[in-house]
Amino acid sequence: MTPAMRALEGTDIAIGAKAEFEREIREEDVLRFAESSGDWNPLHVDPVYAAASKLEGRLVHGAFQVGLASALVGMSLPGPPVLLASVQARFPAPLYFPCRVHVRGEIVSWDAALRSGSVKVGILDAGRRLPTAEIFMGFTSHEARRPAAALPVPPVSAAAVTDAPLVIVTGATGGLGAAIAARLAGDHTVLALGHTRPLPEPLAAHPRVTGLHVDLAAADWRTSLEAVLGDRPVFAIVHAAWPGAPRGGLLAAPDETIEEQVRFGTVYTVRLARFLFGHVGPAGGRLIVVSSIWGSHRPNLSLAAYSLGKATLESAVKLLAPEMARRGVTVNAVCPALVPVGMHKNQSERWIRMKASLVPLGRLCRPEDVGDVVRFLLSPGASFVSGELIELSGGQL
Question: How confident is the model at residue 126 (pLDDT cuts 50, 70, 90)?
Fold first, then answer.
């Protein structure tokens, strides 16, 4: 029989906790495993080949035995919710089938603060009373997904809607872009641009926020914006849109991935700058882009295409600043450290605590941290700040 599902919780997860089960392994089990894994080694599936070897018969795959250990950990020790982190195995004796095996495990390490531990699993050939596998499985215990926090959208009177400076926010349907748009809605009229998803409900309902579906790669993106704006001047554009952060180095990255990252940092940024240059009022305005400390500050080899794209974005800021100054427009980049939104929004509390421990201020950068710096750059107090890359590192060197 397979192990019944039962989850250890709280103080039940402790060094010394044990679980076990027995099951029969038949020929059809091994053949099904060979089919699903693709491992048709004749020592497992060909009786004639196995008989001609020095072995006594066909063997159960070692990976099959690892799967039995995984069943014990995933179903009952500690059981759901658990995520396998590492496997170390040795096979002191061959396991022949058909057979009956006894699978027994014990938690041998557990760190409640980090919610991680390891289980030692032994597999015994019950007929021969012979241990055939010893497997150590590292695990982490994950938490349930945290409910998404409501965006803190400031209230506003209806009379003030048309008087507030107009700010265009790209990527406003993403985690960080939506948070920035919500932060600005208290004292600006926000045209929130999105491409693949709808605006979050609280943002879409705000009287100072207008959502607009715009694809910056499309030929008609300017026409779509101008149809909404009419003759109204634009005070600022906050460019927060970005096509994710693909993992891996540059040598393994597809050309299309690198090109897309660089386009968002250069071509689309310049397009937005041209648009603002032609639609800003006589008092001037602001162009603010959201970059990352993993751009030119600290290139990240495991996010190489992303780092390259953000670095080109920051170079564009430096080069655009003197040109945009002719219309009284300042150009700056906000470069936050890791923010737990977007691709990081469903990370575990343990993961967040681990990352926060690397920050001297003792916490991760928050969306409101980014939003507040953007608000400052939109303020009169930042009218002489231009061409700057403002790093939000929390004190990291």
Answer: very high
Q: What is the DSSP string of 97-113?
A: SSEEEEEEEEEEEEETT
| pLDDT tens digits, 255-275 | 999 999 999 999 999 999 999
Please choose, from the candidates 388, 362, 360, 364, the residue with its C-alpha nearest in 3D space to the C-alpha of residue 374: 388
Strands (E), 323-387: 329-336
Is residue 172 within 8 Å of residue 194, measured between CB atoms?
yes
Q: How far apart are CA 370 and CA 338, in angstroms?
A: 11
| Range 333-353 average pLDDT | 80
Q: Which helix (H) or strand (E) holds 290?
A: strand 285-290
Q: Residues 34-40: contacts with CB within 8 Å, 24+ apart?
A: 34/61, 37/61, 37/63, 39/63
Q: Is residue 27 predicted with pLDDT exceeding 60?
A: yes
Kindly report whether the global pTM for this prediction surpasses the value 0.85: no
Q: What is the largest CA-CA distance in the chain?
A: 90
Nearest to 239 by CA among 284, 286, 204, 205: 286
What is the spatial order of strands in the sheet that 130-140 belongs to? Answer: 18-25, 99-111, 116-125, 130-140, 83-90
Point out which residues pair with 210 in neighbouring strands: 191
Domains and CATH numbers, the chain: 10-140 (3.10.129.10), 158-392 (3.40.50.720)
By DSSP bridging, strand 189-194 and strand 209-213 are parallel
